Description:
Blueprint: E1 7-8, E2 12-16, E3 26-30, E4 36-38, E5 43-45, E6 49-51, E7 54-59, E8 62-77, E9 83-97, H1 98-102, E10 109-111
Antiparallel strand pairs: 1-2, 2-3, 3-4, 5-6, 7-8, 8-9, 9-10
Amino acid sequence: xxxxxxxxxxxxxxxxxxxxxxxxxxxxxxxxxxxxxxxxxxxxxxxxxxxxxxxxxxxxxxxxxxxxxxxxxxxxxxxxxxxxxxxxxxxxxxxxxxxxxxxxxxxxxxxxxxxxxxx
Length: 119
């Protein structure tokens, strides 16, 4: 695999294109051939904006990615000192082989992060 962390196996790169016409502007681009492949929408950021999986890391033909977000209600104390409820999101992460991902599979293995929900 190339030394550049943004380059995926097979000389593919995850890129953002201004308008693919489907509300989802992310795709994979083959840097050798110029072929681009739009990625499927698998979740909605803030329950509204369509998103495809976010590739956080690639190594040995495997991808670590964020493929979704789960929302839940958390109770706490508001700025006025009274009990309050907040809707918060928790990211969902998984691993999948790059070849399977490129073929359109969404059969990733769920990964649970320990501690803060940051990749």
